[in-house]
Design goal:
The chain is about 25% helix and about 25% strand. By secondary structure, it is of the alpha+beta class. The protein is globular. This is DUF3962 domain-containing protein.
């Protein structure tokens, strides 16, 4: 992974503001009688039904429609529909009237009267004109227009290991406010997938006048085998992509399609087991000649909907819903990502590629000579407490833990040495001991049966554990529990909501234990590394679990800590969502020790102490405005306290907080060479240095020129932004850059996450580069075998606390591993 001569290419384009001045689009306003019809249901806050199903219906039929205003009943100045070509108004009004009739019937009101179509029509306008009139539209409309243009013509994917290019045709997908192009599904020996290209428009930090089009590429995997819907995991929204025949386009022989992303979920214990999440059963009745669209029929007979008939539907694979795993793995290769970027560049002549970024040389340590190589301990522990490692499982798991400790190495060195039987000494300067204790597996780690207890099942299980296990006494050691938990297939027949992990974790926490779960060897997922034998793969997993437990108890990577080489305390501010609300945390990394403070228990605790005392933390108010004010107030108060105590901290702030109260780090307010306008921070205070860290999806995707794997920190000198790329995940070490998803569908392709660092305040370039490298090295402090973490250590470890604040699992609408970066 040589870095010599490598340039980081961000997959983003800078727009020429003149590019769309002459481009014409078509606008259609909502009839006033329909606006009044919808307004009768509005209570000043919300409607009793969703408007989005109507827009999804229209966009699944008409690829020309690139924007739908779902707030048309409130926003009179913005058009209802925007299209690249005018669609016959009669058909649009017929489909919309059918939906409104359904609303009227459902709510027992009179349906709106028929309209005089001669008074309703499309009007044309220049893109520049409408964007100037409503600047909010640009973020939706411009990427949608780019995506539409991309789908108009077939594409050729040129791969190095193939003599002939792969021919691809793309369709637009309307989902989650992203402009997306999806290729025709590709059938392989391992399963079915599509390539996906996504477009997103936004500004970067400190550059409010520079509009960038972000481009990312990945895959979407599909379920093609019939499903037993009663065994799907419940309570989670998952995705179906629906496209209806459009006779207007089909008659012209263009074959262009568009898909709407509709969601379903499994609920209840009787048939039908699944339903539409937004009540869509009758949405397509008018275009299906009175027939409803059943999720049960789609899931139990998916192939029926794969033909060229109407509707055309694809079931998107979701790891958290479908119990059967796919043979086809997630992610695409670095070669394919670059090819799609080049494909977009050729298609967008009016958008300029960003200039590739050079590597920032590693800063030299001041006042030190090149040291002779010396024996450095692999890990470091900032406290002298011993660890009790409980193994809750069969003899085979206990023996596997012993074998892992005796033989597995962390970065080339043994983590511990055996002292006597179950006692091991950690290979660190502190020499902490690890004492193994075998504990029999109990029935309280089995799946929950909600048959009689329903929503009380979690609390009942937690209370049973608290009554059954001896509580940890004293504070001279830290108790860590490795618990064998059964795989989903062993408890799924108990029905919906049977996952016991959170209830078990809570119970063990209340008895003074930090927890980590591991599946039995027979239920563990097979290793992706071909060289791994089944037994060595399982030992690898067990060893990783041990590292996670020790990391949660305060053990860090010693070499990475030495490389950080920072004398000032490093403080991170982050928010965590839990069952009772949103919590704020400060984490402080100083002298190799991480401590934690939160609202409600405002003294610095070690990480392991904080984990066991999460019940004492106070969440913020739930009202959004009050919450933002309190987030900012508490942050400012803590900074002032640190300064009063004589500290000169480096403060890491996650960029996501710009939406949640810390407005001073917003993209249009932040200035590279000035302290940000944050509570508790004076503009002329040189004793605090703020660094904004962004690891979210608004950081551009990337590759290297020439195409390769590489690591390091890369600089955009003009903007003051730095981009860090970490080491490859270990699971990817044997994957050559010439390999592709198209020819290796069973291989999981992972790319290290690129993270954006922005040191703020008056300083010279040398100091700015040193701080960027410091933050980058913090990403390697967390002990893990898999990869460099996406976030620097003080931010990363708030995820440990998060595990203990959530009694239930919180699910997102889409849980696809399409764009896999670690």
């Amino acid at each position: 992974m040589s870095r010599t001569g490598k340039l980081l290419q961000l997959y983003a384009f800078e727009s020429d503001q003149n590019a769309w001045k002459s481009e014409e689009i078509y606008l259609l306003d909502i009839p006033s009688v329909w606006r009044e019809f919808i307004l009768q249901f509005y209570n000043g806050v919300k409607l009793p039904f969703a408007i989005k199903p109507l827009s999804k219906k229209l966009q699944s039929i008409f690829p020309q429609i690139v924007s739908v205003n779902n707030q048309f009943y409130l926003d009179e100045n913005r058009p209802w529909l925007i299209a690249t070509q005018p669609v016959p108004v009669g058909m649009i009004l017929f489909l919309a009237k059918g939906w409104m009739n359904q609303i009227a019937t459902r709510h027992g009101v009179a349906a709106p009267d028929d309209l005089d179509t001669s008074t309703i029509g499309w009007r044309s306008e220049k893109v520049d004109s409408i964007v100037h009139r409503d600047s909010r539209l640009k973020y939706e409309l411009l990427p949608a227009l780019v995506a539409h243009q991309f789908c108009l013509s077939p594409k050729q994917l040129l791969l190095e290991n193939r003599d002939e290019p792969v021919e691809l045709t793309f369709s637009q997908v309307y989902a989650m406010q992203k402009a997306e192009c999806m290729s025709q599904p590709i059938l392989t020996r391992a399963g079915t997938f599509s390539y996906v290209v996504r477009f997103r428009l936004q500004y970067r930090a400190g550059e409010p006048g520079r509009l960038l089009l972000m481009v990312s590429a990945g895959i979407r995997r599909f379920i093609t085998k019939p499903q037993e819907t009663k065994y799907l995991k419940g309570g989670i929204n998952s995705t179906l992509l629906v496209s209806m025949d459009n006779p207007l386009i089909k008659d012209k022989g263009m074959g262009l399609r568009s898909y709407a992303s509709l969601s379903f979920r499994r609920e209840g214990g009787t048939e039908p087991y699944t339903r539409w999440s937004e009540g869509l059963d009758e949405l397509f009745c008018d275009v299906l000649w009175g027939n409803s669209l059943s999720t049960e029929d789609i899931l139990t007979n998916p192939v029926k909907y794969h033909s060229d008939g109407s509707p055309k539907i694809w079931v998107v694979h979701n790891n958290r819903v479908f119990n059967n795993s796919l043979y086809i793995e997630a992610g695409i290769s670095i070669q394919e990502k670059m090819r799609f970027y080049e494909m977009v560049r050729e298609n967008l002549s009016d958008w300029r590629s960003l200039t590739p970024l050079p590597l920032v040389p590693k800063p030299k340590r001041e006042g030190t000579l090149r040291r002779v190589r010396e024996q450095i301990s692999p890990v470091y522990c900032g406290h002298d407490k011993d660890f009790v490692l409980e193994v809750w499982g069969p003899d085979s798991l206990y023996q596997c833990v012993v074998e892992a400790l005796k033989t597995k190495k962390y970065k080339g060195k043994l983590l511990v040495e055996q002292v006597d039987g179950e006692v091991f000494r950690m290979n660190s300067s502190s020499g902490n001991r690890i004492v193994l204790v075998k504990c029999d597996r109990r029935d309280y780690v089995d799946g929950l049966d909600r048959g009689a207890l329903k929503d009380l099942a979690d609390e009942h299980r937690t209370n049973k554990i608290v009554r059954s296990i001896d509580h940890v006494k004293g504070s001279q050691f830290i108790t860590c529990s490795l618990i064998e938990i059964l795989p989903k297939d062993d408890w799924k027949k108990l029905g919906e909501g049977t996952d016991p992990k959170q209830a078990v974790r809570k119970g063990f926490q209340l008895t003074g234990r930090i927890t980590q779960f591991v599946y039995p060897e027979k239920g563990a997922k097979k290793s992706k590394r071909k060289k791994d034998k089944p037994e060595s793969s399982y030992i690898h997993k067990v060893f990783n679990c041990i590292l996670d437990l020790l990391g949660d108890a305060g053990v860090i990577d010693y070499k990475a800590h030495m490389d950080v080489n920072e004398q000032r305390p490093i403080i991170a501010y982050d928010l965590v969502s839990g069952d009772k609300g949103t919590y704020a945390f400060l984490t402080k990394f100083e002298d190799g020790v991480l401590t934690v403070k939160s609202r409600g228990l405002e003294e610095w605790l070690t990480l392991s102490e904080a984990v066991l005392q999460t019940d004492q933390f106070d969440p913020f108010p739930k009202a959004p405005d009050a919450q933002k004010k309190e987030i900012a107030r508490w942050f400012g108060e803590q900074l002032r306290m640190e300064r009063m105590n004589g500290k000169e901290p480096i403060v890491l702030v996650e960029a996501e907080l710009r939406y949640k109260g810390l407005e001073g780090i917003q993209n249009n307010k932040i200035v590279c060479d000035k302290n940000p306008d944050l509570p508790g921070l004076k503009q002329d205070d040189q004793g605090i240095t703020v660094i904004r860290v962004n690891s979210n999806e608004d950081v551009p995707a990337y590759g290297f020129r020439p195409m390769s794997f590489s690591i390091g920190v890369y600089s955009d000198n003009e903007s003051g932004l730095y981009y860090g790329v970490g080491t490859k995940p270990k699971t990817q070490m044997n994957i050559a850059k010439a390999m592709t998803k198209y020819d290796n569908p069973e291989t999981a392709f992972q790319q290290p996450r690129v993270v954006e660092y922005m040191p703020l305040g008056p300083m010279d370039r040398q100091d700015r580069e040193r701080l960027a490298w410091m933050v980058h090295r913090l990403r390697e402090v967390c002990i893990t075998l898999e990869s460099t973490s996406a976030q620097p250590y003080p931010l990363k470890m708030t995820s440990t606390i998060k595990k203990y604040l959530k009694f239930k699992e919180y699910e997102v609408t889409e849980a696809e591993a399409e764009f896999l970066e670690l």
